[in-house]
Amino acid sequence: MIISYCFVDLRLTIFLNNIDHDHHWTTLIANQLNKLGNGLPYLIVAGLVFLGAVIKKNKAAAWKTAYFILAIIISGLACDVLKVIAGRARPYEFFTYGIYGFYFWKFASNFWSLPSGHVVTISAIATAGYLLVRRFGWFFCLLVILVFCGRLMSRAHYLSDVVIGAYLGFIIAFWLYHWLSIWRRT
User: Fold this and answer.
1) pTM for the whole thing?
2) DSSP assignment of 62-97, as one string?
3) Average pLDDT over residues 118-131
């Protein structure tokens, strides 16, 4: 992250901004990709599946969907806490005001660039999905890559923001799965 912050983040974001001035379709595509990182639709579907599993007394399905829901919620909460603590200015702050860097303990969304919430969400979803249904691993990786690229192309985040977001979503979903599996066996 430090290398990206010092040498890559600004250069890549400026490059992507210059591309968008010539080709506005990149922002249109990015905005569609970004929708894949919105956690609410996944939570609604998983909530309905969970209710169905509980009604049908299918403990295995209830456990899987409860884990899936918890992975999204816990990773999202951790992301929100880190955003406020880090207070990293978003790329549009750089383009508008020349502001770049960390300002710590900011409660305004224009200083919530690190980590990317969309990437945290899709990474947690992909990790949970892979741990529950391994044969679709390629599909889950594709989802993460698409949202990762969408957040960069829309210049909502810097490269290090999406990398940290991917790692945070992965690590929380991974450890939550193992912790819940141990708890479930006891």
Assistant:
1) 0.94
2) HHHHHHHHHHHHHHHHHHHHHHHHH-BPPHHHHHHH
3) 98
